[in-house]
């Protein structure tokens, strides 16, 4: 029993085959001779009528053979090829997008059209076009709402990308939202326009064609955990759908957060860098982020869809950037030159302190990934907060390390100084590759 995809593919191939059949060069002559042999009168008007009838018959036959192919192409989402990746283009060619085609024109003449949606287990993609006949579509403060509303539930926007036309009259957007629940059959999305103190909104209500929705291609628990220094990375699940691949995991759980808080040695993972490799190729990252709540610090990373002929799958874990609470105090003055301060294994070089126009400036150097998150300067017993940081230079050492030099600016000047550091963040490198078993 062939599924819908196979049937559609056969129909498309059949249509392409019929289009390739050449029309015989002597078809008209043969038809003409056949009419003469049958004794049909050669009146011009009757001949024209007959040939018109034959032409219409041929057109009808051709359309009949290609009807399913024409309908197949009629399902495609038009105009988004430049902002679709390869997987989306293939799904679009298979007719997996649902055409909506709802439009609204605002008072200033600008408009928005909800062109289509594409739904699978990982996300709901909304395709919409913003138009401005004046050629300033990019300057319009016209946006889609940050959620799609369902039956008692909201599906939050995650990420999106767009493309502006060369003449500036339109922008085509593809925005990703959380996938709708199985109970939702009708959804609504609002669009807002705000210009010169005037605001308008429109709400578009559309029905979901559940036959167009797609399930997961791979979904499994990973249970992968690795530790480096003070952090542990845990990869929990992978969920691959026809449009993308989602990796979810944790950096700290509730107990670890509580322990750090009680001991006063809090550390906060700020970023994680890893890649998903399929068939030896690194998949493009679509989006990613981290969140902290009562359950701990979790992350969710989205990549392109897995290849259809999946043979191998692996995670390449590069690094985790962690912010550590510290309590460091150092007496410095204008005679301090190239003084090295070690904090949690990281070297901070105090290059110099100088005063200028009522302000105090401290130039420091460290490895590029090392940042002082909270710093203060005690000026004659008064605690002064950092005003700003001036970027200076990158220096590459003989060993290949890159040191980053910058100046910390404090808006006070005095005679006695204490340089205080309350937190420091730096990168903990993992550089590990872990294979994911394919069932």
Structure description:
- Helix content is 17%, strand content 52%.
- The protein is an alpha+beta fold and 439 residues long.
- The strands form 5 sheets. Strands 1-2-3-7-6-5 form a 6-stranded antiparallel β-sheet, with no helix packed on it. It has a 6-stranded antiparallel β-sheet with strand order 14-13-17-25-21-22, with no helix packed on it.
- Mean pLDDT is 83; it is low at 1-5, 17-21, 34-46 and 53-73.
CATH class of the largest domain: Mainly Beta
Largest sheet: 6 strands, antiparallel
Architecture of the largest domain, CATH level 2? Answer: Sandwich
DSSP summary, beta strand count: 25
Beta-strand level of the residues, as a percent range? over 45%
Instruction: Record the strand order, biggest sheet.
Output: 1-2-3-7-6-5
Properties at a glance:
439 residues, alpha+beta, Immunoglobulin-like, 4 domains, six-stranded antiparallel β-sheet, globular, disordered N terminus
Summarize this structure briefly.
The protein contains five helices and 25 strands. It has 439 residues and is an alpha+beta fold.
Helices, strands, pairings?
Elements: H1 4-19, H2 27-37, H3 44-74, H4 86-93, E1 98-105, E2 111-119, E3 124-131, E4 142-144, E5 147-149, E6 154-164, E7 170-177, E8 186-195, E9 198-207, E10 218-228, E11 231-240, E12 244-253, H5 254-263, E13 267-278, E14 281-282, E15 285-293, E16 296-304, E17 313-332, E18 339-343, E19 346-356, E20 359-367, E21 371-379, E22 382-385, E23 388-396, E24 402-410, E25 417-435
Antiparallel strand pairs: 1-2, 2-3, 3-7, 4-8, 5-6, 6-7, 8-9, 10-11, 11-12, 12-16, 13-14, 13-17, 15-16, 17-25, 18-19, 19-20, 20-24, 21-22, 21-25, 23-24
Helix pairs in contact: 1-3
